[in-house]
């Protein structure tokens, strides 16, 4: 990678209101803005000025109030990523634009065509975070009773991506070697009828976040950038080594895939002030909200249970919608520690989904990022602002310039496409 491109990659994972479940209640938060075009335009310009590689939007296919379990307070909707990214493309010229899209509840020709559109109108800045959908309520929105089993979801994902790739290659005038396979499974038959001009990036950058063996193999096979939760340097290094080993076994060059662990953050001028802000955002998630939050993550209505008692593990595992063994593994430590439901849910809401959390000053955050990069724990970070937009603003204004001064982050983009930002070289 060219030095001018920096050693550290930055992606902004934007979840509407931010990372912490109580974040939308912070005085500086602007939850209403997630419905306004100007908000997305401003964020896109800010992130590009700070020289991020890309902006990413997630994908939630489940009804958040399914089974009456998670009433209104968690139900802040996520808007369609393609629409938001098209708006952002209109006010920027370099930053990458990544939409998360499921391969379990879409069809390849349709998804390939949407990404082709985003890639054209952004002049080669599109990326696809490929997910297989984990929430067990999602199938209800697609007329299906239950989620496909995980290895079947990943097998479908691989065939889906092959078919989409055949579409993009054919559209770019380079029929894929595997086009025949794609045609055989009857998923792909329209690209040949289209006459596309050449795009500066023939297909979107492929992104993945597999954790299970099936998921990691899929990521190692297909992804150019990979998200993961990594709470410590050792966890990051172990994940990166594992993916690199899987990639080598598949004949891929590991230097062509970036490992980007999630990093949530709260910033302030002093460490004490940052700690105070962190405590405040945690306090804003009251017991009721924390119990609803964990309820949604395991697919079981914990609000019906006495909050001052421990989890009745057998009762929950017999009825929860997520796989019982995963839920048992997740809740057992709290039961063994003798925690009440309220305390365990509060703990969970403090560290959502196992991601690393940084609380401190811009200088400390730059130090920490540099340490992780130097230790080979990652190639960059998928940043998840503690709440929006103020924490992202602080990062762009104060941490990004420090990273640039240290030669870690590009001062200028080296090329026009998202793939250029990842690899520091032009690859058509
Ligand atoms: C940073 C990050 C963001 C993710 N975003 C989404 C998302 O928006 N939608 C989704 O269905 N899954 C999302 N996932 C879940 C992954 O796709 C994946 O299912 C998860 O990491 C577990 O891996 P496994 O599928 O191999 O078990 C995300 C994971 C990570 C680490």
Mean pLDDT comes to: 88
Order of helices and strands: EHEHEHEHHEHEHEHHHHHEHEHH
Tell me the CATH topology of the largest domain.
TIM Barrel
CATH class of the largest domain: Alpha Beta
- Counted by DSSP, the helix tally is 15
Distance between the termini: 16 Å
Number of strand elements:
9
CATH architecture of the largest domain: Alpha-Beta Barrel
Largest sheet: 8 strands, parallel, barrel
> Strand order, biggest sheet?
1-2-3-4-5-6-7-9
The shape is globular
| Beta-strand percent range | 5-15%
The oligomerization state is: single chain
Rg calc: 21 Å
Task: Give the cofactors and ligands.
Answer: flavin mononucleotide
The domain tally reads 2
Helix content: 40-55%
Please identify which CATH superfamily of the largest domain we are dealing with.
Answer: Luciferase-like domain
